[in-house]
């Protein structure tokens, strides 16, 4: 499926691209909201390499670096986490902890719905293999 990593640090995937006139870009990961940047002490950006197996594979660029250096550093990978809100929830008391849990469940539901939509498009538009149809059934149950 087509993906793009924009200059704002957001990884987007093209949903329903096999159906004419129905394609739309959906964010899969906002790298500005990663837990590793939450404290505000780190300044880093990411050089995209691949999107595979529900992960974003990239090279971490430290400080103000704009390009990977030689020798190439190791690849890092991040799980998809669809940005549901712009402000991360704080877990100070019980009410905020419950809100954080709700936010995690909402994100999980939206992420699984997007992945299911991609799989449905694949199976519906191509001669799907038995493995792909089985994967679609598994994702529908999830």
TrEMBL record:
**UniProt domain WDHD1/CFT4 second beta-propeller: residue ranges:** 1-84
- The organism's place on the tree of life at top rank: Eukaryota
Q: According to the UniProt record, where is the region Disordered?
A: 87-106
Enumerate the Pfam families for this protein: Mcl1_mid
The record's PANTHER family line, in alphabetical order, gives: WD REPEAT AND HMG-BOX DNA BINDING PROTEIN (PTHR19932), WD REPEAT AND HMG-BOX DNA-BINDING PROTEIN 1 (PTHR19932:SF10)
Please report the name of this protein according to its UniProt entry.
Answer: DNA polymerase alpha accessory factor Mcl1
> Organism, per UniProt?
Cryomyces antarcticus
């Amino acid at each position: 499926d087509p993906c793009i990593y924009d200059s704002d640090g957001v990884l987007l995937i093209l949903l329903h691209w096999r159906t004419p006139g129905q394609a739309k870009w959906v964010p899969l990961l906002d790298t500005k909201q990663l837990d590793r940047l939450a404290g505000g002490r780190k300044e880093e950006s990411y050089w995209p390499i691949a999107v595979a197996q529900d992960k974003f594979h990239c090279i971490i660029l430290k400080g103000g670096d704009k390009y990977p250096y030689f020798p190439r550093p190791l690849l890092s990978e991040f799980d998809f986490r669809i940005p549901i809100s712009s402000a991360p929830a704080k877990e100070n008391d019980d009410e905020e902890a419950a809100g954080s849990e709700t936010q995690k469940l909402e994100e999980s539901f939206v992420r699984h719905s997007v992945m299911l939509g991609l799989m449905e498009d694949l199976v519906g538009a191509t001669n799907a293999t038995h493995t792909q149809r089985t994967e679609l059934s598994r994702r529908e149950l999830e």
